[in-house]
């Protein structure tokens, strides 16, 4: 994007550019430019976010996460107060009747605490298939995957995508896998689970921030082979 050209646009014109952008990198750039227009720009971003999430209720995407990420770091008290008022728990509002509580996962992802969120994701997946702290097994079999509902898997995936600028999530990993002709070795290299053909050591060799390769997170233990991840990538959710 031409930064000089962008600087000559009004806040309203920049909002239009932001809305029309399909690339997360461009969205981040436009949102940051708008936020630099002091309080006026940040109010415009907040109004745009409220319109998307509360008024129009469009499908949530990483665009909402990018705007939210910028606004929660605002130095203006009025912006921080309004964010807390309109989105007290984050961008996702969960059904109280859900059998799994995703708020703790949302909290970690908002703070970009990706390593903690990765561990919690595995715990939530185990909860979804009926495993808890009383079970000796704290990992999934490939036969467990079909018992995870499309709704729950979609929530986990969207949480990761929305709060990572569309960089992380199972659907991102699946897209890379498909584009690699379902070749697992190519997938491991592209998402950075292997470095020069050598598996990374957990946890210190993995990258726990947005500098990681596309699809780097969340992790899945491959010590028991690829069957679990294969079952996940072939879940009915992706074909609905």
From TrEMBL:
Top-rank taxon of the source lineage equals: Eukaryota
InterPro entries hit by this protein:
GUN4-like
User: What keywords are annotated for this sequence in UniProt?
Assistant: Plastid
Residue limits of the GUN4-like domain?
97-235
Family matches, as Pfam families: GUN4 (PF05419)
Q: Name one GO molecular function term.
A: tetrapyrrole binding
Task: Report the PANTHER family cross-referenced here.
Answer: TETRAPYRROLE-BINDING PROTEIN, CHLOROPLASTIC
Protein's name in the database: GUN4-like domain-containing protein
Biological source species? Eucheuma denticulatum
């Amino acid at each position: 994007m031409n930064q000089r050209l962008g600087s000559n646009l009004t806040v309203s014109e920049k909002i239009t550019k932001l809305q029309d952008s399909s690339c997360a990198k461009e969205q981040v750039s436009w949102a940051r430019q708008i936020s630099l227009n002091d309080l006026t720009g940040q109010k415009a971003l907040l109004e745009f976010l409220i319109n998307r999430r509360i008024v129009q209720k469009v499908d949530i995407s990483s665009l909402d996460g990018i705007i939210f990420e910028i606004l929660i770091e605002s130095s203006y008290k009025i912006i921080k107060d309004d964010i807390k008022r309109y989105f007290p728990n984050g961008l996702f509002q969960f059904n109280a009747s859900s059998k799994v509580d995703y708020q703790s996962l949302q909290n970690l992802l908002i703070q970009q605490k990706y390593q903690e969120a990765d561990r919690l994701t595995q715990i939530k997946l185990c909860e979804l298939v009926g495993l808890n702290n009383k079970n000796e097994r704290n990992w999934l079999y490939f036969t467990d995957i079909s018992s995870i509902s499309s709704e729950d898997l979609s929530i986990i995936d969207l949480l990761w995508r929305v709060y990572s600028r569309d960089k992380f999530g199972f659907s991102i990993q699946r897209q890379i896998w498909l584009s690699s002709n379902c070749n697992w070795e190519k997938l491991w290299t592209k998402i950075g689970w292997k470095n020069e053909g050598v598996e990374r050591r957990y946890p210190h060799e993995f990258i726990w921030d947005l500098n990681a390769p596309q699809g780097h997170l969340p992790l899945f233990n491959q010590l028991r082979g690829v069957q679990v991840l294969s079952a996940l990538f072939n879940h009915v959710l992706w074909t609905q």
